[in-house]
Amino acid sequence: MYIILLGAPGAGKGTQAAIAAQKLKLVHIATGDLFRQAVEQGTELGMEAKSYMEKGILGPDELTIRMVQERISVPDCESGVVFDGFPRTLTQAEALDGTLAKQNKAVDKVVYIMVSEEELMKRLGGRWICRNCQTPYHATNLPPKIWGKCDLCGGELYQRPDDTPEVIKQRLQVYFEQTAPLIDYYNHAGKLLEVNGEGDADEVGKRIVTALGGVR
Ligand code: AMP
Questions:
Q1: What residue ranges line ligand 1, CB within 6 angstroms?
Q2: Percentage of the chain lying above the pLDDT 90 cut
């Protein structure tokens, strides 16, 4: 099963992809996390990715597609994947279709998580992430039990450098221009499921599983 979670930055793709991957026993692939790992490791890819991320713009399609192709060729992905933050352009969506088709596979469903722009701004502004396991928290909506520490692994929480008001604005603009057209692309393919992404994370998680047909 190959599922894509589509939505603006701050729509809750990371949180929901982790929930869905666990429930459906799929591998969670977040391209943003792959880029951030490369930045932390100081690899060549990381140095290139850093400059795009800091500006709130997308990395080049070719680089991103290659990174995803490498990741999905690992055997743990054979039974399926939840994609989070990928694809983000039509070129990426077409490349994913092509890559899966070569293995006689296809994207099964695309969950579009809908959240108002006002709510997105609020969420991104208060977001804190675990440096170790990437679990997201929110200063007011979802605070950790101990301030600054991850409830799950005790890792240090940090604010993403691209969660500043100027970069958030840029990332939303990039989303509306380059990623939102994918809503039509997958709608035409008969794969789109629209889910209300407002409310608490567990509630949204239930809506997603119901939309996917109550799978498992
Ligand atoms: P995210 O954590 O998904 O918000 O991604 C953080 C940043 O990583 C984005 O602002 C982009 O610079 C880069 N990035 C993540 N996914 C992609 C993608 N599919 N295509 C291009 N750039 C990406």
A1: 9, 31-32, 35, 52-53, 56, 58-59, 64, 85-86, 88, 92, 162, 171
A2: 85
Look at residue 181 and tell me whether its pLDDT is greater than 70: yes
C-beta neighbour count of 90 within 10 angstroms: 15
* Known active-site residue 160: yes
Arithmetic mean of pLDDT over the chain = 94
Q: Please indicate whether residue 122 is annotated as part of the active site.
A: no
Which atom of ligand 1 is nearest to 31's Cα?
A: 16
How far apart (Å, rounded) are the C-alpha atoms in residues 4 and 1?
10
Give me the catalytic one of 55, 160, 191, 206. Answer: 160
171 is catalytic: yes
- CATH placement of domain 2-115+177-211: 3.40.50.300
34 pLDDT higher than 50? yes
CA-nearest of 87, 65, 89, 113 to 2 is 87
Residue 85 near residue 30 (C-beta atoms within 8 A): yes
Averaged pLDDT for residues 119-124: 90
At residue 190, φ and ψ (nearest 5 deg) are: 75, 25
Domain ranges of the chain: 2-115+177-211
Rounded percentage of the chain residues whose pLDDT exceeds 70: 99
Report the pLDDT averaged over residues 39-56.
Answer: 91
Q: Give the active site residue among 36, 109, 123, 171.
A: 171
Q: What is the pTM of this model?
A: 0.91
